[in-house]
Amino acid sequence: MPTVKAKPLTWQEVSNLLVTDADAFTALRYLRHRESVPALLDLEAKGDDVLPGIEGSLCDLYHALWSPDPSVRDEVRPDRKYWRELLGQTLKTSVYGELHAETQLSELKSVLGTIATGESVLAMIPKKDREKLKELGEAQAEADKLDGEAEAAKAEAEAAGELAEAAAKSAGKPGQTGGAPQSGMSPEAAKGIANQLAEQAATAKAKADATRADADAVKTKAESLADALMGKPGSKEAEEKLRELARIGLQAARDAKAKVEEVSSTIEAWGLEEGELHRESIPEALGLLERMKRNQHLKKFAALLGRIRKIAARKARAKVSGQGVRVAIPETGRDLRRAERSELVAITHPALRAKAFRRWTQGELRLRGEKTEQKLGHGPVIVCEDGSGSMEGAKQQWAKAVTLSLAHYAKLQRRSFGWILFDYGVRQSKTYPQGRLSAGEMLELAESRAGGGTNFEQPLRKAVEMIQKEGLKKADICFITDGECAVSDQFPREFRAAKKALEFNVIAVLCDVGSSADKTVREFSDRIEKASAFTADEAEQKIFSHF
């Protein structure tokens, strides 16, 4: 829930504060995020006394990061000149260019970049500038108020003038019989009313002129305050101010780039795709990524996961290219990264934008999609992961990395994925159709622990049950353990019968065990591999070489 309640903000109110060429489509996207991302509202609250018009500034930042080709306006109000120059200087830096390459058309990274840049800018605006900006903001608000009053007074004066003119004409025209005016009044009475209306019109005009003069005076004051803050164009003070703003913008861009790169590294290391994160709300996605990044245990694990995941992806794509065919299929949705080129053109075309925006809001944009038509024999992948206490440490990290990488492998090949965590019993089990794990599910799997003794029979029986109930025939089971334990006399016979009926295979991976510790696994495994180095290369040689 937002820590600060969002005050209603319309597109028109935002557009009055913008210094960029953001259109209604982009601004409305930002306003949608503003309602759901607490950090944006917190920034507005912090920035209200630091950078007046912060609501528009954050929308400008979002546009500068999300839109493919943003630019700043040539003419802005006096109170927005400071922000226009700061943002304009930022957009000229190479750091911004590198940041923009990461964030454009990415909802998550653009919002994150907006928050990071906004925080840095607010922290670096000098105190002397804050005081002047506040005074300038108050002057601009007064100028806007008087400008509105002047326009209203002008409209009132024009209406009074038109009424007086009509009355004067009516007073001077005879009726149909050539007698009294058409109004039916005597000429003297009609003339008196016309004169009265003329006086009222003159008074209204004088009031309108005075109000306009007051508004212009306050506008002039605002412009003078802006010049005092920014320096006269061409002066040494102006050049120094631009250099100061450029330094602020450069550092803010660096800070944002570091934050976005951290997130990108986390996403890559965990084998995530942004589309998977879009299933969560942006605050939830950012929260998950923060947990992934901050947990020291997971930080070490993520580096190993990243290396093994690349191996899994390479193997999966090699299998697809050699034994399957990718076929384009029509899809609809909101994911602009997969939008058809014609839809992207429509979004940027003034005449087509409204209809394209409607399709986007309804989740009906045409997207690029594909599926893999595979030959028979490509079955689901099931991992039985030993979570007993003896697995703690490098063995457990490696087993988790292998498990998540096999899930990634299954997803790329559109295979179902099953996971069973066991110690002396089955502690957790779940199936994921087509290997689709959300970011939250990946984190849950990585953080899961058991900690007891070891039992082989229960997880293997659970795997058979999973195959039968979920329809996972022709599955490949990867059984990862560091222990040895006995099974009942009837189990090997029953298990072999199930293997034959359900056509599945078992690869047993023994972690850091001696040569004599494989007696039991030989009774139920088709292949046995032994791992001791717990590296990505070993995962490739011992596990992925069989897939």
UniProtKB/TrEMBL annotation:
List compositional bias (Basic and acidic residues) regions by residue number: 138-157
What positions does the domain VWFA occupy?
Answer: 381-484
Q: Which residues form the signal peptide?
A: none
Q: Which residues form a coiled coil?
A: none
Q: Where is this region: Disordered?
A: 138-197
**InterPro entries, per database record:** VWF_A, vWFA_dom_sf
Q: State where composition is biased (Low complexity).
A: 158-168
Pfam families, alphabetized: VWA_2
Q: Under which name does UniProt file this protein?
A: VWFA domain-containing protein
What does the record give as the organism's lineage?
Bacteria, Candidatus Liptoniibacteriota
